Amino acid sequence: MPVLVSLGMLVAVVSSLGAPLIPTIAAEDHVAVSTAQWALTVTMLVGAIATPVMGRLGDGPYRKNVILTGLAVVLAGSLLAALPLGLTCLLVGRALQGVGMGLVPLAIATARDALPPERARSAVATLSLTTAAGIGLGYPITGLFAQYLGMYAGFWFAAATAAAALTATVIVVPAAPKRPTVPMDFPGALLLAGGMAALLVTLAEGERWGWGSAPLLALAVAAVVLLAGWVLHSMHSTHPLVRVRLIKDRGVLVANLTTMVGGVGTYLLIALVTRYVQTPESAGYGFGSSIVVTGLLLVPFSAASLVTGRLVRMLGAAATPARMLPLGCLLSLAGLVCFLFARSSLWGIGTMMALAGLGVGVTFAVTPGLIVGGVPAQETGSAMSFNQVMKYIGYSTGSALSAVILQAATGPGAALPSNDGYRTAGLAGCAAFAITGTLAVVLTRTGTRLRPSVVAAGHVAPVATGERARPEPSRP
């Protein structure tokens, strides 16, 4: 378990390395902040593409080899990003680091196979929370290295961490159970990669190209066509990259929708906070804070998410999705409301991040159990990978959306957006969590009742009114 958790923390730390450095990267390489934002967005983009590929490969007998290959790619990307060779080299390194974001579903699948059922439930919940907890760890570490050792020191730290994780995995992580090898769905991988790339470029470059420009509209149409083609291909393929049909299980559908839309609000908030507190006070707002202070403001987010996730698991059968998912969305919404009305002090921003962390902790403690409880064991890697894709789509969209809104609020010749731009972006985040909460209420309170999360609960409650409770069946 410590090695599997370290993989999750590595993913979180690596994925968050770009965010606090965005203003520094823009100044160092003499580019616009919206361009420097790609140091974060490109990692999410590659993660969204690599995750289902690694999940499908990891469902067969070669899971450990896939984990080791992913760690080796992260190590190579960290070394490349650590070299002071300019923005292009940095972005390529960050892209390679994004491959590591496919490690969390493989760690969850390993825990499900290698641990006894009772320990596996707790392990899955813990692993699902590492991505949130690692943000609060990665940001302060990045800030400390950047402020005292230079912008590239954080990437050297990532390289050392990846090397340690690679060594520990070779020694400790067991091989996957013997299962038939599933052919790789290369057409599906290409359709997903093309669709995701077109979608993210559309969001990131819309303001600069013009929302009504022919190239942007063509790119948006291409994104829709490619992603729709990927869904159709997956539904009719014998061995798809992701079994889209698994989404017909209502628990899996609820988990994926809330993960994606809630991810937009979460990363939009994180991107806003990291830029806002570093803005010089001469702009009429902001605190001119260092990267270290910026990172420390995100520690309450991680601490609250970990504590809340553990409390949800302690609630057992009472932690039903119908109760927990709307509560998580409400808490996250409260965090963004605080950003709109109480961002005049660092204490207020720290409190706001704690509220957001409470919401994320509640949500992340429930959604993995819905997925694990709705799919067979041999599909765990693929199903969790699809959920991670939904999460990274949300994260990438939130990251790109924050840059787009703030760029639109930046006047001609101005270097910084107006304060109203942050209010507009905050309202967009509020809308994301309101939509997520509405989806959670509608999908969990209509029709057949959903079971409690198999992660949060040690047993399963009745599936429908009048039906006797029965233990969660163990899957081969």
UniProtKB/TrEMBL annotation:
Q: Where in the cell is it found?
A: Cell membrane
Q: Where is the signal peptide?
A: none
Among InterPro entries, the record links this protein to: MFS (IPR011701), MFS_dom (IPR020846), MFS_trans_sf (IPR036259)
Instruction: Write down the Gene3D superfamilies for this protein, in alphabetical order.
Output: MFS general substrate transporter like domains
Q: Does the keyword Cell division apply?
A: no
Q: Which residues cross the membrane?
A: 34-54, 66-85, 91-111, 123-141, 153-174, 186-204, 210-232, 253-273, 285-312, 324-342, 348-371, 392-410, 422-443
Q: How does it sit in the membrane?
A: Multi-pass membrane protein
* Keywords attached to this entry: Antibiotic resistance, Membrane, Transmembrane, Transmembrane helix, Transport
Report what the protein is called.
MFS transporter
| Organism for this UniProt entry | Streptomyces aureus
